[in-house]
Amino acid sequence: MAWIVLAEAELDAGDAAAGEAAARRALQLRPAHPEALARLGRAQWLQRRFAEAAESLRFAAARAPQHPGIAVWLAHALEDIGEAEDAAAHYTRAYELAPDSAQIASYLIAWRRRLCDWRDLDRLSLQVREAVGNGSASVEPFAFLSEEASAAEQLQCARLRASMYPNVGPPPVRTRMAGEPIRVGLLSNGFGAHPTGLLLVALMEALAAHTELDCHLFALNADDGSTIRARLASAARLHDLHGQAHSGVARRIHQTGIDV
């Protein structure tokens, strides 16, 4: 259990490689332990090894069918390998096991919207928005974007999520000299041949002509060798942060002195 807890801590800190190593050590000591398998699957998922993650998490779910967290992680992996209906089934299963969890409800409702499955949307949406409003749950901000929420609610959701990482701390205040460009930063795991990269590249190339802006891209994904990645790197300063823990990513952003 100590190795499983260590794996969880490493994964929460964003260090997928260290989390995987700890999970594999736990499995050496207790083969097929569902909690260790689940952390291994989560580590593989964070490293974008989605097929491996799905396999590990399927084994974990089979050994712990009453565990809602494992069902959610399996659903995430199934999303990313294109098994949409199976992902929906596991989100539904997770919610059945933990109907009071607004976080699981947010995953379920976001996925149902993507599949045009309108069952229970109003009830689920109300549950999620009430939890964000009273601060009782940390809901994934990306999932919450699909809700008919106000800007204040979206900000509250983001702040609740950010409070999960208290050791990162706020960025230092930078004093910008008169006439100095505004440093704009964008953070994504899609800077490459990915929908985010495809949609963003022309915008970044257009912004490069504006001398009042100094644009920086903080890439959480590895260089895929694509033309889109090369164009993005030419249009802005691209920081390759692939595989770094959350704290390391935050330090690089702080050190760069980003304004926006």
Overall, the morphology is: globular
Distance between the termini: 42 Å
Q: How many strands, which pairing sense, and closed or not: the largest β-sheet?
A: 3 strands, parallel
Poorly predicted ranges: none
Number of strands: 3
Account of the protein in words:
The structure is a single chain. The chain has 260 residues and is mainly α. Helices cover 60% and strands 7% of the residues. The chain has 13 helices and three strands. Strands 1-2-3 form a three-stranded parallel β-sheet, sandwiched between helices. Strand 2 (213-219), helix 12 and strand 3 form a beta-alpha-beta unit. Helix 1 (2-12) packs parallel to helix 3, helix 4 runs antiparallel to helix 5 and helix 6 (84-97) runs antiparallel to helix 7. The longest helix has 14 residues, at 16-29. It is globular and about 60 Å long. The N and C termini lie far apart (42 Å). The mean pLDDT is 93.
Q: What is the fold's blueprint, element by element?
A:
Blueprint: H1 2-12, H2 16-29, H3 34-46, H4 50-63, H5 68-80, H6 84-97, H7 102-114, H8 121-134, H9 141-144, H10 151-162, E1 182-188, H11 195-207, E2 213-219, H12 227-235, E3 237-240, H13 246-256
Parallel strand pairs: 1-2, 2-3
Helix pairs in contact: 1-2, 1-3, 2-3, 3-4, 3-5, 4-5, 5-6, 6-7, 7-8, 11-12
